[in-house]
Design brief:
By secondary structure, the chain is an alpha+beta fold. The protein has 3 helices and 4 strands; from the N terminus they run αβββαβα. It starts with 10 loop residues before the first helix and ends with a helix. About 25% of the residues are buried.
Length: about 120
């Protein structure tokens, strides 16, 4: 479980992370990772939001996918820069992926996004 301080909850924050002019996106057939770094949140801890739509599967499949992604992000959130917002969107093939495959793909996409975000 992600701690309260690391959860992205407000829809406006989701929108600015996904659609903001300074947002960075990296995707694959399994996942899409959006990152947004702002000066106004520079001293605050990183926040993570997950998007798992009905296209991924039924409620059981979606919840299992969210649990796997949440667990993977919990292990990585402390390594993220302060002030960073991350939205992870699961694509339908993520339903069949195991935890190790999701974690490896998440690492790869986060590294690509962070390379573009950091000066």
């Amino acid at each position: 479980m992600l701690s309260e301080q690391h959860r992205l909850r407000d829809s406006a924050d989701f929108a600015s992370t996904v659609r903001g002019r300074t947002s960075v996106r990296s995707g694959s057939p399994l996942l899409v990772v959006h990152t947004h770094l702002t000066d106004s949140r520079a001293a605050q801890p990183p926040r993570v939001g997950l998007v798992v739509s009905k296209a991924v599967g039924g409620a059981v499949v979606r919840n299992r996918t969210k649990r796997r992604l949440r667990h993977a992000m919990r292990d990585r959130v402390e390594t993220l820069p302060r002030g960073l917002d991350v939205v992870v969107r699961a694509n339908p093939p993520a339903a069949e992926a195991d935890h190790a495959r999701l974690a490896a793909e998440l690492d790869r996409l986060l590294a690509r996004c962070l390379a573009k975000v950091r000066p």
